[in-house]
Structure formats: C-alpha cells, structure tokens
Design brief:
It holds the Pfam family GST_C_2. The chain is α+β, with helices and mostly antiparallel strands. It is 52% helix and 9% strand. Strands 2-1-3-4 form a four-stranded mixed beta sheet, with helices on one face. β1, α1 and β2 form a beta-alpha-beta unit. α4 packs across α7 and α7 crosses α8. The protein is globular, with a radius of gyration of 16 Å. The structure holds glutathione. The site of glutathione (GSH) has 16 residues, from α1, α2 and α3.
C-alpha cells in the first residue's frame, strides 16, 4: 500500500493534491503527517523521508516518489482513472495541471493556503488579477469544452486535484469568479474528501508558517 507523507492540512497546499486525488478515487493509502517547524525551515525534518526535504512524498515499497506531479503520474501507472479516459481531455488535463504546478506564483505568494480561516487581502494587484483571470479562463474552458461537473469531464481526475488548493484559497480570501467557475469551486468545497481535510485541519495547532 502507498504511504503518503504530508504536512499540516491547514497550510500545505502541495500535500493536498495527491491526498485528495487518492481519497476522491478511493485508492487506499497510509497517511503520515509531519508538522512544519514553527517559523523556520522544515527541510531537515522532512529530509528523513523525502529526498528533496519537501512534502508531499509517496513511498511504495522500495520506491520513493517526491513532487506532487510525479506522484500523480506514478499513481496513474496503476490507476488509469487518475487522468481522463478521452485523449483530448487527458492532454488538456495534463496541460492545466502542469500550468498550475509551475505557474500562478503571485496567487501562491499573496494567497497562501489557510483552509480553516477567512483572511482579508490588502489589495488585488494587477499580477494577482492576471492569475485570477487565467484561472477563470482555464476552469471555464474545461467545464464548457468537456461538459462535465469536473474540470475535464464527468469524473474527478488529477486536474481537479491540482486546483483543489485554489478552491480553498477562493473561500479564504473571498475571491470572485464567473458563475461557471464558481459552480466547480462549490462542488470542490462540498466534496466529502475536502470536508474531511478541513475538519482535520481545524484540529491542528496553528503555526507561524
Ligand atoms: N513542487 C513541489 C513543491 C513542494 C513544496 O514546496 N512543499 C512545501 C510544503 S507545501 C514544503 O515541503 N516546504 C518545506 C518547508 O516549508 O520547509 C511539489 O509539487 O511537491
């Protein structure tokens, strides 16, 4: 069985991606949670189980897979439902997940995940607005092009998992999206696995991460 190392559910957006993917697809795994060091780097602490000193990290027997995208691809080798069945939807889903993985830096910096709280943004800078506009465009495209309740069709796939932390961020910071995107956000926020994540996050100690 897979072992997935993650950090604090309230703050660790990267940890949420493979966790929600496994949960939403009903793939069994053991969860190992290692708390962030309060106010300092957790690198040394995480190096004990993760070669990069970062979470998430998946261990499967002798195999260690670090980085959320590599983990999704590794799981996909045994579980084809990780990506959409349709080739065109799969290409779109991979592109959108990769864009999330390597982009949206302003959103990540200005709207850190804090899924149990509501916070006020000082202002929406042009750079942040660009990220928000791009998110709306990507989500709207997936939802209209593939016509399902999830971003790349009727099934929850890795692309939904990759944007899951953003669904929390929209709630925390009161970010505004089109009705089409908001319907997906609401679906994500009401997903039983997202609710389970928040309930666990609420029981964690707050830190100055
Ligand atoms: N690109 C990596 C990013 C992983 C990452 O940045 N993880 C953060 C936590 S969300 C971390 O482990 N930080 C260590 C620290 O804060 O010292 C991935 O996709 O897994």
């Amino acid at each position: 069985m897979y072992t997935l190392w993650i950090a604090n559910k309230n703050y660790s957006s990267w940890s949420l991606r493979p966790w929600i993917l496994l949960k939403a697809l009903n793939i069994p795994f053991n969860e190992r949670l290692s708390y962030f060091e309060d106010g300092e780097s957790s690198h040394e602490k995480f190096k004990v189980f993760s070669p990069s000193g970062l979470v998430p990290c998946l261990v499967d027997g002798d195999t260690t897979v670090w980085d959320s995208l590599a983990i999704a691809e590794y799981i996909a080798e045994d579980h084809i439902q990780v990506w959409p069945k349709d080739r065109i939807a799969r290409a779109w889903a991979r592109s959108a997940a990769a864009e999330m993985h390597s982009g949206f830096t302003t959103l990540r910096q200005m709207c850190a995940m804090n899924c149990t709280n509501t916070l006020k943004l000082e202002k929406i800078t042009p750079e942040l607005q660009n990220d928000l506009d791009r998110l709306d465009a990507v989500w709207t495209e997936g939802l209209t092009k593939f016509g399902g309740k999830w971003l790349a069709g009727d099934s929850f796939t890795a692309v939904d998992a990759f944007f899951a932390p953003v669904a929390f961020r929209t709630r925390t910071y009161g970010l505004i999206f089109s009705a089409t995107s908001q319907a997906w956000i609401d679906r994500m926020l009401n997903h039983p696995a997202m609710i389970e994540w928040v309930e666990a996050a609420a029981k964690e100690p707050a830190i100055a991460h």
